[in-house]
Specification:
Layout: E1 2-5, H1 11-22, E2 26-31, H2 34-46, E3 51-55, H3 61-75, E4 80-83, H4 98-126, E5 129-134, H5 147-167, E6 172-177
Parallel strand pairs: 1-2, 1-4, 2-3, 4-5, 5-6
Helix pairs in contact: 1-2, 3-4, 4-5
Length: 189
Amino acid sequence: PVIVVTGGGQGIGRAIALRFARGGYDLVVPDRNLGTAQETAQAAHQLGVHALALELDVANRDQVREVFSRIDDEFGRIDVLVNNAGVFLRETIEKSTDDVIDQTINVNFRGVLDCTRAAIPTMKRRRGGCIINAASILGHFPDVGLGVYGMTKTAVALLTRILAGELAPYGIRCNAYQPAVTDTPMVHD
């Protein structure tokens, strides 16, 4: 089996990737930071599995298409896609700049949507797979200064439910996990 974990270079994504590696699964670790992706891939190699680190900004649709095409060419399958990549930018909605809003939406929601759309044909061809999306408890319990973040994570949760219905006939399961604030490099500020 081949597991793709976006944002697997650090934090929750790295923990997920290495947990799969300990289970004997081959990994693809696309991350905006190629260096941290390579560190995760090296740690997975030490656990005895094949792991490929790729540079990917999930907010860049062309990169998403290229990376998922490469995964399909190299492995011919994606058994599990974990849409974990995300940004956590703290600012009130009023004070959020257009750039902050665009980045948060493009990474946290649009990135999930585009990576999922890129993986679906491979999974459909194999008549199975699993898509796991990173939502957040903050989508249910909003925090002042994290409104845009919470909205994107609520959208991911709804997208997951929609995809579960649309993809079930093809044997593709869709689920989301909703962590609270977790001690990772992303939230250290």
